[in-house]
Write a structure and sequence with these properties.
This protein is mainly α. Helix content is 50%, strand content 7%. The two termini are 12 Å apart.
Length: 116
């Protein structure tokens, strides 16, 4: 188990209680996701970013499915913030330089580094 996975597990129940206390129903659209397949693949799941809840909500749903050692891409505008940035990193996020996000070699290198 990775250090960030332990951090996610330590707050998972609180995040779960928050979202299900806030919303009556949570719907996720997309293809079926088999957590056993996810554990042995380099699949990248992205959010629509209707809000910054996306990180936490999708992470909670993946955790509820049994997915471990998740990593999250987060804009450097979030990961560089004084208090929130270290929290994001502690939960497995890695920074994305928005100014470089259309550069193919940057994305390939970022994807390779995120698997570590």
């Amino acid at each position: 188990m990775k250090h960030y996975d332990r951090n996610v597990k330590s707050v998972a129940q609180g995040v779960h209680n928050f979202f299900y206390g806030l919303y009556n129903t949570i719907n996720v659209s997309g293809p079926f996701i088999d957590p056993k397949v996810l554990q042995n693949s380099g699949l990248m799941i992205t959010c629509s970013h209707r809000s910054h809840y996306d990180y936490f909500l999708l992470g909670m749903l993946m955790h509820d499915m049994g997915v471990n050692n998740m990593r999250f891409a987060a804009g450097d505008n979030l990961t560089n913030l004084p208090i929130i940035g270290p929290k994001f990193k502690a939960f497995g996020s890695f920074p994305i330089k928005r100014s470089s996000s259309l550069n193919r070699s940057y994305i390939i290198n970022l994807s390779n580094r995120s698997l570590v």
